[in-house]
Amino acid sequence: MDIPILSLLICLPTIGALFILFTTSNSKKYNSYKYISIFISIVNFILSVYLWYQFDKSNPTFQFVENRDWIYGFINYKVGVDGISILFIILTTFITPLCILSVNSTIKNRLKDFLVAILIMESLMIGVFCSLDLVIFYLFFEGGLIPMFLIIGIWGGDRRVYSAFKFFLYTLLGSVLMLVAIIYIYWITGTTDVEKLYQIGIEAKYQKILWLAFFSSFAVKTPMWPVHTWLPDAHVEAPTAGSVLLAAILLKMAGYGFIRFSIGLFPIGSEYFVTLVYILSLIAIIYTSLVALMQEDMKKLIAYSSVAHMGFVTLGIFTMTQQGVEGSIFQMISHGIISAALFLCVGVIYERMHTRQIKNYGGIVSVMPKYSILLMIFTLGALGLPGTTGFVGEFLILIGAFKDNFLVALVASIGVILGAAYMLWLYKRVIFGELINKDLKNMLDLNKSELIILSSLAVPSLYFGFYPEPLINTVEMSVSNLINNYNSSLEIYLANQK
Amino acid sequence: MITDIYYVIPEIFLSLSLMFLLLLGVFKKEGSTIVYNLSLVFLIISIPLILNVPSNNTTLIFNDSYKIDYLSNFVKTLIIISTIFVLLTSSQYLKSIKIFNIEYPILILSSILGMMVMVSSNDLIVFYIGLELQSLALYVLASFNRDNILSSESGLKYFVLSALSSGLLLYGCSLVYGFSSSTNFSQIGFNYDQSIQGITFGMVFILVGLAFKISAVPFHMWAPDVYQGSPTSVTLFFAILPKIAALTVFIRFLYSPFLELIDQWQSIIIFLSIASMLFGAVAAIGQKNLKRLAAYSSISHMGYALAGLTTGTNQGIQSSILYISIYLVMNLALFSCILMLKKNNKYHESIEDLSGLSRNHPLLAFSLLVVLFSLAGIPPLAGFFAKFYVFAAVIEQSMFFLAIVGLMSTVVAAFYYLRIIKIIYFDKEAEKFDTDHNLGLKISLTITTILILIYFIYPNSLIDFVSKINLV
Question: How many distinct structural domains can be found in chain B?
Fold first, then answer.
């Protein structure tokens, strides 16, 4: 294995983006750059599946590690994957081609620039998930702000400027503290290499403050209540493909960050702040579910449901149990697929009717049967019906939570019910009922490309719902290794305290 | 003595070529193009001359009043290279506002000659001669467009305030001389008695004078007006070169005669740094004129550069020099963009004029995008590394307050950079600008943009040079 496959994965979309930028013109003439970008992103997907195939699941350490000098004696360019990150990489490479496919008539102007932005975004997101050096991680994590800012701002809806600014400034503000923490870690340990930091550990007295600094960044990005308010705005104003990227992958960066850095690097800090995370997660689950119930804009409703789902994820991660963490990872993958699909579904009818207000719809089932079936699958997936990926994730998280704290699990379970309520109510109002709005009668059912996109999202969400084994299997060793490390360093700490 | 001359060949060469150009300008009618081009040639020749001067060891010449070391050579090279870029970018502008006179390159050359003396000085008197040489040339440059009332005003304003600050600086110098009985930097450090407060007074006056030159808050008042009033090419010169020189002199002062007084000056520099970062970020939000905005942005960037100096370590000096190097590249790119905003031979400076630039001029808009994000310090662009290094040095000394305030003000600053990006990318397009830019402008914009964009691939390229600066 001499091919630097991870670097290839990171660079390929950027190379494609540059290729498109310099070779094709921005003319209306249809559409060589679209095919090039689809081709590149599919190649990247195949490459990542190959990576998964080559990946040794029984080995909990980092694999495919590449380590190069970057700034001498200071920072190395280091990338590698373990069972946790590999799933996110596949999720990224899987969602991106679908995103690009879904861009047809929604993006009216400057399609070429849009595709370039999405491809660069893909590079950065893959980079986040496989970087094994804190500074490199920060570079990718923050670099993603630029393309996303432009995606929301240039191609977004009416209030796009406000949303783009809010998105950018919120996340930047969260992240600068993380930068301070990263530099500080370098000065107290002499390295920013994650693998080395896992081995040597960080002194207990620094862990709480460092944990908080990282938390400020990840909490904004997750987003956790009360700093979640940028998300509904960004989602509503972003173009469909932007919302999909945002919901499916960007939010997962923070969840991934919690697992990889907060728990991995600062076990004592994590243990200390568990209650804080529990409370914020529970508020997120209950409160944003209630808010979602009252939404009249479909995209906004799904955005709030994302906040609630991410609440489950943070809850699961900080149970520090095998099931909880596995469940969280599973939930993130599942949410990545399902929320992407839901946003695409909203995009489909938005394109036809140019409204996202729920009250303008109703009775669509009679004109768009295929659409209704697919939306049904995703709705049920989002509310966690057994047989979909949503169920497996939530179920595992709740097991983990029951192991840790009965009350927390009980409250979280109410969130499941609320989730069912708002999703089913949404479905009912949009799909069933009388076909009152006359314009709806002229709506065409899904065309070929929409059908392909939505079915290719439906298949994994059902397949892994019935047969979660391949995913669980991949993360199992890495998660148990993580939790063992966590527990052992806690034990040492407690022993020292006595 | 004769061997000493070997070390100052670049300075001698520059002054000879300066005089030669002056004579040429007198005797040859309509010679401004030749003078302009020749001055570029002389500048290019002086680069190998500087590199030829041995700099691995510190050498003191002319009775220890002149210091040649790695820092001085590095900064001199930076000065020459950025002057070349300034001259490349400005010729078209000067022609179209009809101030393409022979004096312009000559004044620039004499100003940078002064700067070169400044950065090498190891004696208060030599330092002051260099400072005045560069300042006098700058006064004239600021009012170079003498038919324009704003330009005359800015020249006068700069002259009056700068003279005041020079006065303060001289007063400080005399106090230092009085309490240490020497004007030599190396001697001052040995001679003074720390328990006597007089030397601290002198130092503070000197710092105030220098803070004025780099427009650190609260000595920044002149900067916005002078930036706005001066011809744009002169503003570019103002934004970069005096700051490099003055920052280097800051390093010379703080780390050579006054290193023992670190407890005294550290808090002063921290204050200057925090005030500049915050004020620059907040005050820029309401600006409507690009050059004025550049003034506020440069105030806040000086704050970051000073933050590196607060540490009192080599790491800090290196990070400051790295910061100023990247800052100069970013400003060159920014001003190259501003110099391209020309409609029917009239230059536009208002931010609103950029509206919808991305549709009419996608490449120019993209360059501005890169530059602005880099100025805001967003990774992976060069500006991020500049800030990263400074804060790495600051956090090493556990100065968290400074680091956190600094990084928070980058968030505030990000707002106004984003506002320009919003106008460029999100707003409706306005009228097109002319596209007949000359080659020099295009070259300088292309090179600087690419440097900013791809710096992250090989950051060692600059860090290798900077890390050789060891003063402490």
Answer: 1
Taking the Cβ of residue B384 and every Cβ of chain A, the question of whether any pair is shorter than 8 Å is answered with: yes
In a domain, B172, yes or no: no
Distance CA A384, CA A395 (A): 8
Are B408 and A172 inside 8 Å of each other by CB?
no
The answer to the question of residue B177 being in a domain is no
Exposure string over A384-398, b if 16+ CB within 10 A, otherwise e: beeebbbbbbbbbbb
Q: Which of A113, A146, A188 to mutate to test the interface with B (most CBs of B within 10 A)?
A: A146
Half-sphere exposure of residue A395: CA atoms within 13 angstroms, side-chain side: 12
Largest CA distance in chain B: 66
In angstroms, rounded to a whole number, what is the distance separating the alpha carbons of residues A177 and B441?
A: 39
Summarised one tens digit per residue, pLDDT across range B121-144 is: 999 999 999 999 999 999 999 888
Q: Looking at the domain assignment, is residue B385 inside a domain?
A: yes
Q: Residue B447 belongs to what domain range? A: 263-472
Is B392's CB within 8 Å of A186's CB? Answer: yes
d(CA B9, CA B397): 40
- The per-residue pLDDT for range B377-405, each reduced to its tens digit, is 888 899 999 999 999 999 888 888 999 89
In a domain, B465, yes or no: yes
Residues of A in contact with B421 (CB under 8 A): 149, 153
DSSP A106: S
B362 contact residues in A (CB cutoff 8 A):
26
Bin A330: left if φ > 0, else alpha if -120 < ψ < 50, else beta: alpha
How close does chain A come to B444, measured CA to CA in Å?
20
C-beta of residue A278 within 8 angstroms of C-beta of residue A320: no
Question: Which residues of chain B from 393 to 432 reach within 8 Å of chain A, CB to CB?
Answer: 395-396, 400, 403-404, 407-408, 410-411, 414-415, 418, 421-422, 425-426
Number of helical H runs and strand E runs in chain B = 20, 4
What pLDDT band is residue B76 in, cutting at 50, 70 and 90? very high
Q: Six-digit token pair at B7?
A: 């070390």
d(CA B111, CA B109) in angstroms, rounded, equals 5
In total, chain A counts a number of residues equal to 498
| Interval A435-449: pLDDT, tens | 777 777 777 888 888
Mean pLDDT of chain B: 89
Cα gap B185→B60, rounded to integer Å: 11
At B312, the pLDDT band (50, 70, 90 cuts) reads confident
Which tens digit of pLDDT belongs to each residue from B204-245? 999 999 999 888 888 888 899 999 988 999 999 989 999 999
Chain B CB contacts of A70 under 8 Å are 459-460
Cβ of residue A161 closer than 8 Å to a chain B Cβ: yes
Which segments in chain A show pLDDT lower than 70?
1-2, 24-31, 104-106, 108
pTM for the full model?
0.92
Top residue of B395, B401, B419, B463 to mutate, by most chain A CBs within 10 Å, is: B395
- Could A180 and B395 be called an inter-chain contact, meaning their C-beta atoms sit closer than 8 Å? yes
A18 touches chain B (CB under 8 A): no
- Higher-confidence residue of B340 and B194: namely B340
- CB within 8 Å: B407 and A177: yes
Chain A (364-403) residues lying within 8 Å, Cβ to Cβ, of chain B = none
Among B379, B403, B414, select the one facing A169 at the smallest CB separation: B414
**Confidence (pLDDT) at B172:** 92
